[in-house]
Design goal:
The complex is a heterodimer. Chain A is an all-alpha fold. Chain A is built from 13 helices and two strands, in the order H-H-H-H-E-E-H-H-H-H-H-H-H-H-H. In chain A, 73% of the residues lie in helices and 3% in strands. Chain B: It holds the Pfam family ABC_tran.
Chain lengths: 326, 603
């Protein structure tokens, strides 16, 4: 019963958040300079044609009317069509105003559906790598506060956090792909292409996870129930693995939620550097082409993902710590 | 015969010394404990009681270290063989501490942790059997609905129930020795009395020897077969409770007994001799306050204060007593205007505090001030003592800088703080000095009414006495009125002329001091008196008056008298109708149907 009420409430709140995000993005896109019709029709198109296309597409209506029409489609699962991308995916933008392919512009939903799984795959792998690095280092540091494992965790985090990701990406590509030829780097032709960008992202995220873990493990280890567990006769392994880790996992879980949402929303630089065909690359191109429907679609999908991830995180957190049932 | 006696001794401590760095904490402790006996260890804070408990539980952490002696448990030296000692802890030597709230993992059910602990020390016991044993023991310590409680989390347990669960946790492995370190300290008196009774019953049933460590002499004497007195890390005497009280051998014990406040016999008495005026300075009229929380099924109302009704006379000492959760602190927040009541009126010198504007309330606060319980959290650690004292004057824009400083210094010397401390931070002050500072801060505005919310609870016996003397002097000089909010019956007995007893948000009895202690009009008051820690012969025997169970939740209050569920005299009417506070003559009021003259029942 609690779960249903919780889900109903949170999904309702989430819907409001997504609605507000789309309204904000929609308005902002239409007040920034730059006419997308000019880009679509091509520089050579006559002014009258542009006005006609714009009027046909409803781009000269008041913003609230345009938004109403748009959100009506969104509710039915229609995120609209890209302004510039043709459905066949061949060319980008309208080279000439009487290009026949223009009428078959790509569905935004399809564009996102093609790229989102790529980003999801990248984000998941990056998170796995980050946890593989962070959990042993962080827990070990937290079990010896002030000792050398704690200092090592701190030094490692400082090192990782101060490496710029674009530089690290290039260096790793140079070493692992070019010199050692261990894995491919640029583009995407299979799972192996995900490893290198995921590694770079993992090194970017790991310091936050390490820090959170050391602090929360050290905090839990100082609590009475851990202290007294030894006198109650529990073994060190039981204390650490059954009690300390479970109790310190909540802050980590929250952080993972936030970091994962950020990974889904925009690994712009990394996807750009590695030419990885994910949401980030799609976003960059959409912005550069003033492809309003696509930008809006991406914003809505990422906002929705953010909301869902947060709901999942809170749900998992309440199963770990029943006191959090709220 | 000598051999037989040797093997029967469970624990034999010889010349045990513990050091912290180069400071001696325990100095040559020697004692024996026979199976099935309860030995109390008593001493003031810093006497080494807890260090002794931890040494025996093999739980010393640096800088503490054993510097000499032997601890023979069932004939083997624990100090010489730490591995053996470690294997005993939790199995043969069980430990229960004084902080049940944090003693179990909050993310696992109590039952799962009891099973986990039993199987950690006795891997041969199968899980199902461990579960049955845990439930059986939870029943034995009288946790209601034990099967359901087994699957609940620690945060769903009250403090008293949690302490019972920790006793189960200790006893579940059938230990030969139970070390109980201050187990009743954080509990309310009626619950603490239940726990003590329970411990004695369990001692008889499970034949566990108990080392009962405690800082209250009455509790120690109540609990045990013998009392051992620790003073500055040494055992200064060991006697049966009766002999100890009758003829203490050591000066420390003698002083301890002499300065122990009493409830019924003569003792330190600071009550006002001059009868208080009949002019109310503060009148509480039908005040109620409820807080909204999220309950199991959506929102719920916690009825913190219900229909409180009493007068405080000018120049008087008024006491408000009750156990935790009875609404004392909520009432304090209402009296001081920190929160506004949902209903009723609080009149201070005829003016309603509950409806006064913010500006007016601030002006009124010059005349009534609050002194809080926690000596550490209530002072800003980064302000100098002088600045802390001058702040109220600044807020109310009183005096020039020089005048304020003179005033601060004057108040400091009045409460017994050396004026030389003016520039220093409160960091180095003891708890007693901090409370003096809090009192000084409250009285610098020269108020008429001081509300003391558990002001003395954090202080030890001696320091409490000194502060009560101080309050008396200040009252004589400035004509203060005091409201003492406290859970401590012996304290209000010493100082208050009239006392209100609260239970679940209601004042169930308001009576003059002597009347309350010698002729209480409410069964709850009798229960409190029967549980109060004292060495005196009790006027109200726990067997007749002690309350079973714990107060119901203030969220789902039953109809009728809130006390009916624990009352030994409850009858049908109590469960249907809530008795009003009625006069019993001579300023004494009580809310109980038993006091009604029979012909007046239907008036």
């Amino acid at each position: 019963m609690f779960i249903l009420r919780f889900l109903a409430r949170r999904l309702f709140q989430g819907a409001i958040i997504v609605f507000l995000v789309s309204a904000l993005i929609f308005t902002l896109l239409r007040v920034v300079p730059g006419d997308p019709v000019r880009l679509m029709a091509g520089g050579m198109a006559p002014e009258a044609l542009i006005e006609q296309i714009a009027a046909d597409m409803g781009l000269r209506d008041p913003i609230w009317q345009q938004f109403g029409r748009y959100i009506g489609g969104v509710v039915q699962g229609d995120l609209g069509q890209s302004f510039v991308r043709p459905a066949n995916g061949a060319a980008v933008g309208g080279a000439s105003f009487d290009d026949t392919t223009r009428s078959e512009r790509a569905e935004v939903l399809a564009l996102i559906a093609d790229t989102a799984p790529m980003t999801l795959q990248l984000a998941l792998l990056a998170m796995v790598f980050a946890l593989v690095i962070a959990v042993p280092v962080g827990v070990w540091g937290g079990l010896h506060p002030g000792g050398w494992p704690d200092r090592m965790a701190l030094y490692l985090s400082s090192l990782f956090v101060s490496l710029p990701n674009f530089w690290l990406g290039i260096v790793l590509a140079l070493i692992l792909s070019v010199k050692l030829q261990l894995m491919p780097a640029i583009g995407y032709k299979g799972f192996a292409y995900t490893i290198l960008p995921a590694l770079v992202l993992a090194i970017e995220i790991a310091p936050f996870l390490i820090r959170t873990l050391t602090v929360s493990v050290a905090g839990v280890m100082g609590q009475t129930f851990i202290d007294i567990a030894r006198v109650r006769g529990l073994t060190r392994n039981q204390i650490v693995f059954r009690h300390a880790l479970k109790n310190s996992s909540i802050p980590l879980l929250n952080l993972i939620g936030v970091q994962f949402s950020m990974l889904l929303g925009g690994v712009l630089v990394i996807e750009f550097i590695f030419d990885y065909p994910g949401l980030g690359l799609l976003t960059i191109n959409a912005v550069m082409q003033r492809d309003f429907p696509l930008i809006q679609g991406i914003a809505i999908v990422t906002a929705a993902a953010f909301v869902l991830i947060n709901i999942i995180v809170d749900l998992v957190a309440t199963t770990i710590d029943p006191r959090l049932e709220y | 015969m000598l051999d037989g006696a040797e093997t029967r001794t469970l624990l034999s401590v010889r010349n045990l010394s513990v050091m912290a760095g180069d400071r001696t904490i325990l100095d040559g402790i020697s004692f024996d404990l026979q199976p099935r006996r309860i030995l109390s260890v008593i001493g003031e804070s810093g006497s080494g009681k807890t260090v002794l408990a931890r040494t025996l539980a093999s739980w010393l952490s640096p800088p503490l270290r054993v510097s000499g002696g032997t601890v023979l448990f069932q004939g083997r030296d624990l100090l010489a063989d730490p591995t053996h000692a470690r294997s005993l802890s939790g199995r043969e030597i069980a430990y229960v501490g004084g902080n049940p709230a944090g003693a179990l993992d909050p993310t696992m059910t109590v039952g799962a942790q009891l099973v986990e602990k039993l199987r950690a020390v006795r891997p041969d016991i199968p899980a199902a059997k461990a579960r049955d044993k845990a439930i059986q023991l939870l029943k034995a310590v009288r946790i209601p609905a034990a099967e359901r409680r087994f699957n609940e989390y620690p945060f769903q347990y009250s403090g008293g129930m949690m302490q019972r669960a920790m006793i189960v946790d200790a006893l579940i492995s059938d230990p030969a020795l139970l070390i109980a370190d201050n187990i009743t300290q954080p509990l309310d008196v009626t619950v603490a009395a239940q726990i003590l009774k329970l411990m004695r019953d369990l001692n008889a049933e499970f034949s566990t020897a108990i080392l009962f460590i405690c800082s209250s002499l009455p509790v120690a004497c109540d609990a045990s077969d013998e009392v051992m007195v620790l003073h500055k890390g040494r055992v200064v005497e060991r006697q049966t409770p009766a002999a100890l009280i009758a003829s203490p051998q050591h000066g420390y014990t003698y002083a301890l007994i002499a300065e122990l406040p009493t409830l019924w016999q003569g003792g330190p008495d600071r009550r006002r001799r001059v009868p208080a005026t009949e002019r109310p300075i503060m009148s509480v009229r039908g005040v109620s306050k409820a807080y909204e929380t999220r309950g199991k099924s959506g929102k719920a109302l916690v009825q913190a204060v219900r229909n409180a009704d009493f007068d405080v006379f000018a120049g008087d000492n008024f006491g408000i007593v009750g156990e935790s959760g009875c609404g004392k602190s909520s009432l304090m927040r209402l009296l001081t205007g920190l929160e506004r009541p949902d209903g009723g009126r609080i009149l201070f010198k005829g003016e309603d505090v509950g409806t006064a504007s913010r500006k007016r309330l601030r002006e009124l606060r010059r005349e009534f001030q609050l002194v809080l319980q926690d000596p550490y959290g209530s002072l800003p650690p980064q302000s100098a003592i002088g600045a802390i004292l001058e702040e109220p004057l600044k807020i109310h824009r009183i005096g020039t800088r020089a005048e304020r400083r003179d005033r601060a210094r004057a108040v400091m010397s009045e409460v017994g703080l050396h004026p030389g401390l003016y520039e220093s931070l409160p960091t180095g002050l003891s708890a007693g000095q901090r409370q003096r500072l809090n009192v000084a801060r409250a009285m610098i505005l020269e108020p008429d009414l001081l509300i003391m919310d558990e002001t003395l609870s954090a202080l030890d016996q001696t320091e409490q006495g000194k502060l009560l003397d101080l309050f008396e002097r200040l009252q004589a000089r400035h004509g203060f009125t005091y409201i003492f909010i406290s859970h401590d019956l012996t304290m209000v007995r010493q100082v208050c002329s009239r006392i209100a007893v609260m239970y679940l948000g209601e004042a169930v009895e308001v009576a003059p001091n002597d009347r309350l202690f010698f002729d209480p009009g409410h069964p709850y008051t009798r229960g409190l008196l029967s549980a109060a820690p004292t060495l005196e012969p009790r006027r109200y025997r726990p067997e007749d008056c002690l309350l079973e169970g714990e107060p119901p939740s203030p969220i789902d209050l039953p109809p009728g008298c809130a006390f009916a569920s624990r009352c030994p005299h409850a009858f049908d009417r109590c469960r249907a109708e809530n008795p009003a506070l009625l006069s019993r003559g001579g300023q004494a009021l009580a809310a109980c149907f038993l006091n009604e003259p029979h012909e007046a029942t239907h008036v």
